[in-house]
Each structure stands twice: as structure tokens, then as C-alpha cells.
Design goal:
Order of helices and strands: EHHHHHHEHEHH
Strand order of the largest sheet: 1-2-3
Number of domains: 1
Structural class: mainly alpha
CATH topology: Rossmann fold
Radius of gyration: 18 Å
Length: 189
Amino acid sequence: MACGQKYVSFLKTPGAPVIHRAATKSGSAPSGPAPGEQFRLGLGFLLDGIARCLAGQKPRPVRTQWGAWITEKFGEWTDNGLPDEAVDRDQLLTNVTLYWLTGTAGSSARLYYETARARAWNPTARSTVPTGVAVFPREIVPPIRRFAEQSDTIVHWTEFGRGGHFAAMEVPDLLVGDVREFFRPLRRV
């Protein structure tokens, strides 16, 4: 059996309305921009840097700017609100340090830049590839199944009670378990 399936934990659903989260942990109404707007604003710093790199200017963000930016994203795009509560502090610092030392902050976000530039967030043709989706409540732009089904062939959909954009670091046990469940039928017995 050929492996013609895909599993994603970030799926921008075309046509989906941008919605505010229902409430904060304290139960109060959410404040600030909606998740889609947070995504656009949150990547602005990085996308601007990528655009300048592609134009041949090749600037590297000041190390402290990059460190502050990604740490802020770990706070905004994870469950706990404080970066070192969602992910172990050493793991967070290792992540930031790897981007610093290798100079790969821009290339890591190039996918977002190229996709936005090509206006490919909303594909024109429906994908027939069987797709598994993990939905985490603190994802930047949580997917909505009825919209996802308009662009993808959804065969597996799991909604989790915790986790966010950095689920692989934040709740690896949940993500790995779901990936295994999705691909289990492909295993040879």
C-alpha cells in the first residue's frame, strides 16, 4: 500500500470566518485581535525580514529581537500564557538558540511568506489526499471542519482539550498518539 495520506496540526481552512475564542481561562471575554488577526500581526516582523532577504538585502534580525519575538509567540500561541509554563524553559531556550546559531529564523517562516504571496491559503481545487487533522484549542487560527472538508478529504479529525501551535513541544504525548492512530492502518502486520 502506497503512503498517500497526510497528517497536519495546522490547517488554514478556506472561507472560514475569523472567530474570537469563546473565553479566557478565567472565563472572561477574550480581548485583543481575533486569532486570524493575531496570526497576521504576529508574523509581520518575520515576514518583513524574509521579504528583505529575498530582495537581496539579507539582514539578520538582531538576536534579542528574534529571541523576544519567538518567546512572545510561545506565550501567545500555547495554552498557558507564559512561555516557560507551556514548554520547559531549557527546551524553549534550545529552540531559540538553534535559530540564532544557524541563522534559520527567516527560512523557517518562508512557507508562510510564499503561501501568502501566492495567495495559496485558499486553494482552488479540492485535494483528494486522505487527510488527518489535529485541532488544538490554542492554535493561531483553529480549523473548522465544515470548511476544511471543502478543500481537503478529511478522514481523521481529533479535537484536543489542550495544546496550541507548538503542540509537538507542548503536548507531544497527545500529538504522537494521534499521529500513530492515523497511520496505524498503513502498518504491515
